[in-house]
Here is the input.
Amino acid sequence: MARPPSRGGPLSERPPWLLPAAVAVAIVILLGIFGVIVLANRGGGQVTGGVHTTPTAHASTSPAASPSPSATTKGPLAVPNFGPTSADPITKVQICTTASPCNIPGGSPETGTACDLSSCKVEVAIYFSSVQKSTQVSYTMKFFDRCTGQTTDLPGPSASTPASGYIVSIPTDHWTVSIPNGVKSGAIVAVAQKPAVARSEPLLLGAETC
Here is the structure.
């Protein structure tokens, strides 16, 4: 009796799950290859020997700030106020210099002061609001160190106006003033003591730096 024809070759003998499994394996392999490619191109990095490297940013450097220059010298201090510039009967006290002469009614201007930090002689005029007859007149000197801020009291002359009276008195011509040693910048101020207390404008001596 003849055998019936076969309905299939060797494929008909494979299990029914084999083909779907093969497809799944192929998909996994493709996904793995695609993942490696994506990682290789991601972020601009490189894949070398299985290690993913990313570029590092170079730290920017800024030039060091130059130290600000420090002052090597300082300016002299302002001269303190040693009292009012007038007090009745005194209207003015003035140190007589060539730059600031003392005008004397009926006489020549006085300019006798010759003063610096090494040698100092002063001439001081005291002006009155009215003629002063037989009146005692005196003044002292204030020396101010404009670098240290120290004030030194120096003696001044005293005299009396004549019985006929003066409206301007210069107690002593060319009064010697002893300037302290080692001063770089200073000032002298004449301060009347009698018949009232009043001061002159300061006479600046020495440099304008300390």
